Amino acid sequence: MTFPKDSIYASPIGEVGAFKFDETVTGVFPDMIQRSVPGYSAIISAIGLLAGRFAREHSVCYDLGSSLGAATLSMRHQIETENCRIVAVDNSEAMVTRFQEILQKDQAPVAVEVLCADIREVAIENASVVVLNFTLQFIPLEDRIGLLQKIYQGLLPGGILILSEKLKFDDDRQQELQTEMHHAFKKAQGYSDLEISQKRTALENVLIPETFARHQNRLRQVGFSSAEVWFQYFNFASIIALK
């Protein structure tokens, strides 16, 4: 399947506004995310495999910040557990509307409920799997621990949180190198220096990355017994947190 090419930042913009998941971004999102996040397809595929491993009967799997539902669909096609359903949540009306259209064409026995809501306000209950796939980085820093506490409390014993994030590094040399290599990755995907620069400006103060140590410490603080990186490609990583 082919998707419209992301060219949102291809031409000079006088004043670059803050990045938003609006209709313009929604229209090119599959291309944008694939060309911007190293290893994205591998992460999506593994989320499905992990959901197949951890989903339990009569439980709920949550995709928080679901965008166009890539993680939801991956879980849906890997879960074989009976009487298990998925709740996908996103606060972008454009994303939710488009995902609902995609979902109508998808055939799988696992029920999916799509909500347009702020994930900070959605109750997490009876969960065996929770996914935050490049979502927490857009939540205000002061709200992150509260969201993770709610997720932990809503997870069943033995449940899993899959947390994917862009990372920052305390070591200045690592930070410079990882940023440089991410830009090299994007250029290899066809983005120009102008596109990379303008999107970086748009994401400033919107996407706030943290170190792995900060993520790990906070996950342990809210109660997770284990939190480790299972995948990393330059400054993008995915973490498995176990209850």
From TrEMBL:
Superkingdom in the source lineage: Bacteria
The Methyltransferase domain, residue ranges: 63-159
GO MF annotation list: carboxyl- or carbamoyltransferase activity; methyltransferase activity; S-adenosyl-L-methionine binding
EC code(s) of this entry: 2.1.3.-
Cross-referenced InterPro entries: CmoA, Methyltransf_25, SAM-dependent_MTases_sf
Family, similarity comment: Belongs to the class I-like SAM-binding methyltransferase superfamily. Cx-SAM synthase family.
PANTHER family: CARBOXY-S-ADENOSYL-L-METHIONINE SYNTHASE, TRANS-ACONITATE 2-METHYLTRANSFERASE-RELATED
Protein name: Carboxy-S-adenosyl-L-methionine synthase
Taxonomic lineage of the native organism: Bacteria, Pseudomonadati, Pseudomonadota, Gammaproteobacteria, Methylococcales
